Fold these 2 entries.
Entry 1:
Amino acid sequence: MIGRPTTEQTLALGDFVPFRLNRLAAGVSLHLAEVYQHRFGLDIPQWRVMATVGAEQACTAQFIAASTRMHKTRVSRAIAQLEARELIERAASAADRRQRQVRLSRSGRRMYSELVPLARAREATLLSCLTPEQRTGFLTGIEILERFLQLEN
Amino acid sequence: MIGRPTTEQTLALGDFVPFRLNRLAAGVSLHLAEVYQHRFGLDIPQWRVMATVGAEQACTAQFIAASTRMHKTRVSRAIAQLEARELIERAASAADRRQRQVRLSRSGRRMYSELVPLARAREATLLSCLTPEQRTGFLTGIEILERFLQLEN
DNA sequence: CACATTTAGTTGCGCTCGCAACCGTCCCCG
DNA sequence: CGGGGACGGTTGCGAGCGCAACTAAATGTG
């Protein structure tokens, strides 16, 4: 029923790329959530902030928002929660007193160093079901679509 | 910064497949929303219900939930809203009086017949930035990953 | 046949999100 | 140098969501 090929008049969601992409992304997120959620008690915004801050020495909330494409309020709240758990620290910026420099705390760095290999492993597990050629083909498609939709970074 | 290749200790989100997949899916959804939202005043759950019901003569809420992978409460509310707009109708099922048969109303069918070609056109526009080989490579990747994550339908 | 379990669908509730408004700071231009 | 707009970040609020609990109907079991 669902997977049946669509005719001109009909559209089966199971055959519709935007829907399939959403479903796939949700499935992959769920797959990944097992590591950052169950093992470290992070939700998605928090995980993304951790990942972004951990890759920089220090950065601002707006940088995180731009990198992760999350709304600035979502970032703001995630940062507040991470600060409450003492995973990150904020210091007033000398140059611009509106912004605050966010960086990982000691325990934040420890979590980050555990988190990253596990996340990587999940990604690898995921992609392991594709042959090298399939993988590059898939990634090429993503890349071109990203450019087409101007999501590049 | 963001796109910089990751080392063993570091993970750049812009280089991390699960994140890129989420971002891509969100971008594609946004692209598609222009048709179902701005032109027809539907939100995502409503659009998915319309698409599912329109492809069947009649179906139940639970069938819609399974097809769209939406939570049954989300489906229930979307159906209620569409019924309030008189785009769909519900009739008690003779065989099982717990369930109700959902089908498109006359105006629902009219909307559906306008909606489907536009959605298809959006999908085609999107995929038009890929060469035929890239397209099949990309779709193959999606398909295998769907099977791997058991999202097939 | 009675009772327990399962299933279809709805609803109350708490949580998260994005929008808009806001505060404080910076910066440009007259 | 003074004022207006732009910008970084936070917060109040309404909308949408999933969970859990519920109703009603079907099904299974002794």
Note: Residues 17-39 of chain B form the longest helix (23 residues).
Entry 2:
Amino acid sequence: MTKLQSQGREPFEAVDRAPEAQAEGFATVRQAHESEMAEDYVELIAELIELRGEARPVEIAERLGVKSPTVTKNISRLKAAGLVRREPYRAIFLTDAGRELAEACRRRHRIVVAFLLSLGIDEETAERDAEGIEHHVSTTTLEAFKHALQKFQSGK
Amino acid sequence: MTKLQSQGREPFEAVDRAPEAQAEGFATVRQAHESEMAEDYVELIAELIELRGEARPVEIAERLGVKSPTVTKNISRLKAAGLVRREPYRAIFLTDAGRELAEACRRRHRIVVAFLLSLGIDEETAERDAEGIEHHVSTTTLEAFKHALQKFQSGK
DNA sequence: TAGATAAGTTAGCCATGGCTAACTTTTAAA
DNA sequence: TTTAAAAGTTAGCCATGGCTAACTTATCTA
């Protein structure tokens, strides 16, 4: 039986993976959740700095769909993590580390979105799903997305 | 400029999506996070019931990579949510609703894994990434995965 | 330039989902 | 059948990331 046929299993046949491997997978997901906040913020801050020259908490709150105290709290966490530079009541800027992270996230985001679009998914859905998916895409999988995308683009 | 070329943007060019659409996307991700626990548990419980005839907290804890009090707490939440049936110190079983959710999750899981494998990703990575990705795949995207998979399987 | 409005912060609340320590119940073995 | 080990629960802790209410600071405008 080849790998690919795994999708053809009967609905009730259990897949018995090694417990430790499974546990490691779940641990990876939990770790990804811990970096999601930081990634979402720096990515958005980078976008806003490009568009406006600075990132303001109001706009961050609006675009993330959260209230401003939440932004204040999370920005102070990012500052503690050395990703962000800022003085109270002033706009927010990225440190070198923050800029680096933001760029990596944005590259990844674009690849995921472009990949989903190449499957024929509409733009709204691609953007929305990418927002959740991107945090769980390993470098291996990202490379595979890139590769498939290139193949699609040349073959079309 | 076509959709697909979006990946070819310069690293510093901002993509200005509508703020409300962006906010909605993040809200969707936050909602997905809220159902993740339930989905992971019922999926695993269904697997264990198949393999062993019942699901025991020890094994759930082992496979999720968490400690047993965490399992106890979460199982009681699932019970309150009507997904699980169980008496203290006894094995755990699924209600009809739980079984239904579990099957949907497992179907989705298998499609995501098979799809990643079809891109040439190794099995360990596919399983690990799928664990995180699956919770953020809309029905639209899942259909696109299925479609791409069929195309791949027939064309190979 | 004074005062109103908008923006940002602080304090304190809540649920989630981890954890350890200590206890109870069940199971298995001597 | 008694007792030791394994399994499960309870209580209470922690960090995360939401929220509202109340306050402070900055900005804009009359």
Note: The mean pLDDT of chain A is 91.
